[in-house]
Write a structure and sequence with these properties.
Layout: H1 2-6, H2 12-33, H3 41-59, H4 64-77, H5 79-98, H6 100-111, H7 117-132, H8 135-153, H9 157-174, H10 179-187, H11 192-217, H12 227-237, H13 245-255, H14 260-278, H15 280-287, H16 295-309, H17 318-324, H18 333-351, H19 354-365, H20 369-387, H21 390-407, H22 412-426, H23 434-443, H24 447-450, H25 455-477
Helix pairs in contact: 2-3, 2-19, 3-18, 4-18, 5-14, 5-16, 5-18, 5-23, 6-8, 6-12, 7-8, 7-9, 7-11, 8-9, 8-23, 9-11, 9-22, 10-21, 10-22, 11-22, 11-25, 13-14, 14-15, 14-16, 15-16, 18-23, 19-20, 20-21, 20-22, 20-25, 21-22, 22-25
């Protein structure tokens, strides 16, 4: 500790360089490779930005061994997210093989009005996420089905993904079952339900704005006759309500607060078991096992293959095959690569003091309530960019701003609600953040492609600032100092 205190802190320019390098390199990757940047170029850019941060830390007295340990420790903290990514890949593979995914699409085509699909998608995912408290589980189950319905209707994938993300993150922000809502309340030492009441007001307005926006975005223009596609889906997969069983299992486990990885992976195994029961011929054909392999083991091989490498549909109908050829743990490997690169950068940046150097001057110049909340929101966004982790974007700014809020006499719930309204939604808008990377891999739409349409996620932090303005105005009208 004594050695660490003698190290000169980074200058402001030095602290800006790694973050600016990261944004510049990933932006250049997007310009050159478009959505293909997530398949490798983004990761290379992040590795270069990490080396720049390592060089700056080395110049300030940190050893290379110490910086390496910081990167490794940061990556270790992201192992949970990596396992969830693998579980979602496995789930998509077995749900495609069992017909669960096709059944979701079939009934979606039957029930949902194509003209109002976007607003319906946002409302459905909002309701589900409030009930289970997890944006990741919502996107990885219901969201996948809604993307399939959108494709079958010929709708815009980016807008659909934006609607799904908007709804999923509403529940993640306000549900008492949400780990991020509990973390925001705990970081500010606020009662959970007091936090949810204030955050819910902000999030409710943001969701209303999103629903209005998606209402006007509409959906399919003109009449959409899905009867032919529905007939193909039914003919190839024999649609029945039984195929919803893996989805019901996942929702039930989520409501029981079973850990996300366990919930999703059990849903994947349930999909594989269901496939072996309702469509053993399909599973055996997919396995392509040798003739001497017993039927039971051939079934195991087919399910195993779907879990590991995804399902490949060979119905001969392009619409069906495109919908159901997907998934597998291996499909998540490039996203895992991105998460590892992002967490390594975040670990080094945190160790050399990038965040402290960037955030401390902001807290000093923020004098009024409004400027303090603006500084907090900006700091949360900077933390999400620099550390690539939603939870750090909640905890670190909350800790760093807690004293400033107390010194100005602000109630702790103002801090917690501002953190909750900003950190949770904006994490989905950063391509290299674990949330942005997960959603892009799960929904099949690049983060920067759906981000402009994630209306709730963009509006919520802005409304947190607006709420602070209204509160400051009310205080001034009562003759109090804002």
């Amino acid at each position: 500790m004594a050695e660490q205190k003698t190290r000169p802190p980074l200058s402001l320019i030095e602290a800006i360089i790694p973050v600016a390098s990261l944004i510049l390199l990933v932006g250049l990757s997007y310009y050159l490779f478009k959505d293909g940047g997530a398949d490798g170029p983004n990761q290379v850019g992040m590795a270069v930005a990490t080396m720049i941060a390592v060089f700056l830390g080395w110049r300030r007295g940190h050893t290379l061994h110490e910086l390496s340990d910081a990167a490794v420790a940061s990556v270790s903290s992201g192992i949970g997210a990596i396992f969830i990514l693998f579980a979602v890949g496995a789930l998509i593979g077995t749900w495609a093989m069992s017909g669960t995914l096709v059944t979701m699409v079939y009934y979606g085509l039957k029930i949902l009005n194509p003209a109002y699909f976007y607003v319906s998608a946002a409302a459905i995912t909002a309701a589900v996420s409030v009930g289970i408290g997890s944006s990741w589980t919502t996107a990885g189950t219901v969201g996948i089905g809604l993307m399939g319905i959108s494709d079958a209707m010929g709708l815009d994938r980016a807008i659909t993904a934006g609607a799904i993300v908007s709804g999923a993150y509403f529940g993640d922000t306000v549900s008492p079952l949400s780990d991020s809502a509990n973390l925001a309340a705990g970081a500010a030492d606020v009662d959970l339900y007091a936090h949810i009441r204030r955050t819910g007001l902000i999030a409710g307005v943001a969701l209303a704005i999103a629903l209005v926006a998606f209402w006007f975005a509409g959906g399919a223009t003109g009449d959409v006759d899905a009867s032919y596609k529905m007939a193909m889906l039914d003919g190839d997969f024999h649609i029945s309500l039984v195929l919803f069983l893996p989805l019901f299992l996942v929702v039930a486990l989520a409501l029981l607060k079973v850990r996300p990885f366990t919930t999703i992976f059990l849903g994947a195994l349930a999909g594989g078991l269901l496939a072996a029961i309702v469509a053993p011929d399909r599973v055996e054909a997919f396995a392509e096992a040798d003739k001497h392999v017993p039927t039971g083991l051939a079934q195991v091989k087919g399910v195993w293959e779907a879990l590991a490498r995804g399902y490949v549909s060979t119905t001969g109908h392009p619409v069906v095959d495109q919908l159901t050829t997907r998934g597998g743990m291996s499909s998540m490997l490039t996203t895992v690569w991105l998460v590892i690169a992002a967490f390594a950068f975040g670990g080094v940046a945190e160790r050399i003091g990038v965040l402290d150097r960037l955030i401390t001057p902001i807290t000093r110049v923020a004098k009024s309530t409004v400027s303090l909340v603006i500084a907090l929101v900006v700091s949360i966004l900077a933390t999400g960019i620099a550390t690539a982790d939603q939870y750090l974007a909640i905890v670190l700014p909350a800790k760093m701003f807690k004293r400033a809020f107390e010194d100005r006499g602000h109630p702790p719930v103002l801090l917690s609600s501002s953190v909750g309204a900003s950190a949770t939604p904006t994490s989905a808008l950063i391509p290299w953040n674990s949330c942005g990377a997960y959603l892009a891999a799960t929904l099949g739409v690049a983060t920067l492609s759906y981000a402009p349409y994630a209306v709730f996620n963009v509006a919520n932090p802005l409304l947190a600032i607006a709420a602070a303005c209204v509160g400051a105005g009310a205080m001034r009208s009562r003759g109090l100092k804002a």
